[in-house]
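Researcher: I need the complex structure. Ligand is succinic acid. Inputs:
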Amino acid sequence: MGANERPLHLLNYINGEWQGDNLETFDVINPATNELVGTMPNGTEKDVLAAIEGADAAFKEWKKLSAEERAAYLEKMYARLIERKEEIAQVLTEENGKPLKEARGEVLYAASFIKWYAEEGKRVYGRTIPSKGEGQRIQVIKQPVGVVAAITPWNFPAAMITRKLAPALAAGCTFIVKPPKETPLTAAKIMECAEEAGIPRGVVNMVLTPNEAFSETVQKSKVVRKLTFTGSTEVGKLLMKQSADTMKNISLELGGQAPLIVLDDADVETAVEGTIASKFRNAGQTCICANRIYVQSGIYDEFVGKLKEKVAELKVGNGLEEDVDIGPLINQKGYDKVVRHVEDAVAKGAEVLVGGKGHQTSEQDAPFFEPTLLINAKENMLCMTEETFGPVVPVQKVESDEEAVRLANDTPFGLAAYYFTENMSRGTKIGEALDYGIVGWNHGAPSAAQAPFGGTKQSGLGREGGAEGIEPFLETKYLSIGIK
Ligand code: SIN
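Model: Output:
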């Protein structure tokens, strides 16, 4: 356990008040140690309704502020996150398990969205269009969509909130978030930063409830105009169906199944570095992490040899220890899936070069899995067709660019893809041929506040981040003005 005020007891943040002291609580457990990190109230439908009412009332005033005024609040919130970086990173590691160095990086990444959208809100431009005649003027203006509900995941407990909250607030919307039960404490700390920044009551709200209580209440509400979700494709499809009744504006950032291609003219060091960066961040529990690797035969032995050395060097352990690279998986269910994928691959002919099994630590029953390198991977293996969400790299040998691209695109998902080549013409063609929303060429870490993040096909709808990321929080209004 970290600092001396543990376990934490944090509350829901509804209409500017910390609420839920009278409710039943649930435990938040450190996946690395099974220790209690804190408790949170189990909110109810009533709490969600109170948050909607507060956000609706606040919207009437917040939307009237100028972009400059809203930016000033966001700048203050950014400053609070930066000032509290160490404290928030510590809680994040305790409830999520990721190494402290990654948790610190995530707090900075989370803060970067707030800073970026504080500025971007000032660039929400309309248009004036020449009309057909002297008697009409045509204006196009952008206005906030209204009250936004957000459902966020446990793998990035801070950044997936701010990537939605910052553009929503900058656009003039008000915001209600339901974080996951695994990582609500980081979310509550982010709400504290919003409160400390003086953001008016009701503009930002957080309600911890069971998933159904939140989504059903929000879906029925005519006041909530937008739903934004990061999570599984399965849940995304359900939310999309439910949204039809009130015709909500919906953004979905869903599962991935990222291919990573290494062509025979790649710089091997860059390709290995990119593979490690992409695959092992958060123990492989990111939607954009490389899931399956295709390596051209001419570079295969050299690439696999160097990758093996690097994978074997990765240190597994409790993320609070400074030199740890790989923390635990989030829970037993996640661990079991990784075991299933490795066993299936081995049964179908894959060879384990590094790892391949659970990692023993002094902590009992914690879901640590060894960083694992598999070769002789094939299309029929689970690890080549489903998102593994764990520290496993399966490598398949390919012969041509065409074969690599065909295999890479042969999936219902389209979030992120990576490839490594030093050849400009080859690289340009492959970048254009990959059917993905995010493509890294000689680069394994594409995420950035200023760039659009999101997928094609069953990986979702819409983009977060960049200039594109504020659009889903805006309505376009056409004003037709008759003049004399
Ligand atoms: C995700 O896993 O969905 C988020 C990863 C990122 O923002 O880099």
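Model: Summary of the prediction. The chain has a mean pLDDT of 96.
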